[in-house]
Amino acid sequence: WGINDKDGPFDINNVGSVPGKTVETTVRDLGHTGRVIDIFKIDCEGCELATFRSFYGKGFILRQIQVELHVYRTPPYDLFHFLSSVGYVIFHKEPNVLTKGNCVEFSFLL
Protein backbone atom coordinates (compact mmCIF):
# COMPACT_ATOMS: atom_id res chain seq x y z
CA TRP A 1 0.00 0.00 0.00
CA GLY A 2 0.96 3.64 -0.34
CA ILE A 3 0.10 7.01 1.17
CA ASN A 4 -2.71 8.77 -0.64
CA ASP A 5 -5.12 11.64 0.00
CA LYS A 6 -7.97 9.15 0.49
CA ASP A 7 -8.36 5.48 1.34
CA GLY A 8 -8.69 3.17 -1.66
CA PRO A 9 -6.75 2.10 -4.73
CA PHE A 10 -4.81 4.59 -6.84
CA ASP A 11 -2.45 4.45 -9.81
CA ILE A 12 1.31 4.87 -9.60
CA ASN A 13 3.32 5.51 -12.76
CA ASN A 14 5.05 2.38 -14.04
CA VAL A 15 3.48 0.26 -11.27
CA GLY A 16 -0.27 0.27 -11.80
CA SER A 17 -3.02 0.26 -9.21
CA VAL A 18 -2.01 -0.10 -5.56
CA PRO A 19 -4.01 0.09 -2.32
CA GLY A 20 -3.89 3.54 -0.73
CA LYS A 21 -4.24 4.80 2.82
CA THR A 22 -4.28 8.28 4.29
CA VAL A 23 -1.73 9.19 6.94
CA GLU A 24 -4.56 9.21 9.49
CA THR A 25 -5.61 5.66 8.53
CA THR A 26 -2.00 4.49 8.63
CA VAL A 27 -1.52 5.98 12.11
CA ARG A 28 -4.70 4.27 13.32
CA ASP A 29 -3.80 0.91 11.73
CA LEU A 30 -0.37 0.99 13.39
CA GLY A 31 -1.89 1.78 16.80
CA HIS A 32 -0.34 5.26 17.07
CA THR A 33 -3.53 7.29 17.55
CA GLY A 34 -3.11 9.80 20.37
CA ARG A 35 0.68 9.70 20.17
CA VAL A 36 3.38 12.13 19.22
CA ILE A 37 5.34 10.71 16.31
CA ASP A 38 8.87 12.09 16.52
CA ILE A 39 9.94 11.56 12.90
CA PHE A 40 7.75 11.06 9.84
CA LYS A 41 9.78 10.38 6.67
CA ILE A 42 7.97 10.20 3.37
CA ASP A 43 9.29 9.67 -0.15
CA CYS A 44 6.22 8.87 -2.17
CA GLU A 45 7.41 9.71 -5.68
CA GLY A 46 5.14 12.68 -6.18
CA CYS A 47 2.22 12.07 -3.82
CA GLU A 48 3.45 14.70 -1.37
CA LEU A 49 1.58 17.57 -3.04
CA ALA A 50 -1.70 15.62 -2.96
CA THR A 51 -1.28 14.38 0.62
CA PHE A 52 0.48 17.12 2.62
CA ARG A 53 -2.69 18.33 4.34
CA SER A 54 -3.02 14.87 5.88
CA PHE A 55 0.40 15.28 7.55
CA TYR A 56 -1.41 17.43 10.12
CA GLY A 57 -4.21 15.19 11.27
CA LYS A 58 -6.64 14.42 13.98
CA GLY A 59 -5.45 12.15 16.74
CA PHE A 60 -1.70 12.41 16.17
CA ILE A 61 1.15 14.91 16.03
CA LEU A 62 4.09 14.65 13.65
CA ARG A 63 6.89 16.49 15.43
CA GLN A 64 9.33 16.30 12.51
CA ILE A 65 8.43 15.79 8.85
CA GLN A 66 11.06 14.78 6.32
CA VAL A 67 9.78 14.81 2.76
CA GLU A 68 11.30 14.63 -0.70
CA LEU A 69 9.61 17.23 -2.89
CA HIS A 70 9.51 16.73 -6.63
CA VAL A 71 9.86 20.44 -7.37
CA TYR A 72 10.05 20.08 -11.13
CA ARG A 73 6.39 18.97 -11.34
CA THR A 74 4.60 21.69 -9.39
CA PRO A 75 6.15 24.32 -7.13
CA PRO A 76 5.36 23.37 -3.52
CA TYR A 77 4.15 26.82 -2.39
CA ASP A 78 0.84 25.48 -1.02
CA LEU A 79 2.69 22.85 1.02
CA PHE A 80 5.04 25.46 2.51
CA HIS A 81 2.18 27.84 3.30
CA PHE A 82 0.02 25.13 4.89
CA LEU A 83 2.77 23.67 7.08
CA SER A 84 3.83 27.17 8.15
CA SER A 85 0.22 28.08 9.01
CA VAL A 86 -0.03 25.13 11.43
CA GLY A 87 3.30 25.90 13.09
CA TYR A 88 6.02 24.01 11.19
CA VAL A 89 9.34 25.61 10.27
CA ILE A 90 11.94 24.44 7.76
CA PHE A 91 15.16 23.45 9.49
CA HIS A 92 16.99 21.61 6.72
CA LYS A 93 16.96 21.18 2.95
CA GLU A 94 19.25 19.53 0.46
CA PRO A 95 18.98 18.75 -3.22
CA ASN A 96 18.87 15.16 -4.37
CA VAL A 97 21.87 15.31 -6.68
CA LEU A 98 20.89 12.04 -8.33
CA THR A 99 17.92 13.88 -9.85
CA LYS A 100 20.02 16.88 -10.95
CA GLY A 101 18.26 19.07 -8.40
CA ASN A 102 14.73 18.20 -9.53
CA CYS A 103 13.98 16.75 -6.11
CA VAL A 104 14.77 18.43 -2.82
CA GLU A 105 14.67 16.88 0.65
CA PHE A 106 13.02 19.21 3.17
CA SER A 107 12.79 18.77 6.93
CA PHE A 108 10.13 20.56 8.97
CA LEU A 109 9.90 20.87 12.74
CA LEU A 110 6.83 21.62 14.85
Give the beta-strand count.
Answer: 8
Number of helices: 3
Coarse shape: globular
Order of helices and strands: EEEEHEHEHEE
Strands in their spatial order, largest beta sheet: 5-6-8-7
Structural class, please? alpha/beta
Largest sheet: 4 strands, mixed
Fraction in beta strands: 35-45%
For the record, give the distance between the C-alpha atoms at the N and C termini, rounded to a whole number: 27 Å
Q: Mean pLDDT, rounded to whole units?
A: 86
Assembly classification = single chain
The low-pLDDT segments are none
Radius of gyration: 14 Å
Percent helix, as a range, is 10-25%
Commentary on this structure:
This protein is α/β, with parallel strands linked by helices and 110 residues long. Helix content is 18%, strand content 39%. The chain contains three helices and eight strands, in the order E-E-E-E-H-E-H-E-H-E-E. The chain has helices at 23-29, 48-51, 77-85; strands at residues 2-3, 10-12, 16-18, 20-21, 35-42, 60-70, 89-95, 103-109. Strands 5-6-8-7 form a four-stranded mixed sheet, with no helix packed on it. Strands 1-4 form a two-stranded parallel sheet. The chain has a two-stranded antiparallel ribbon with strand order 2-3. Strand 2 (10-12) and strand 3 (16-18) form a beta hairpin. The protein is globular, with a radius of gyration of 14 Å. The two termini are 27 Å apart.
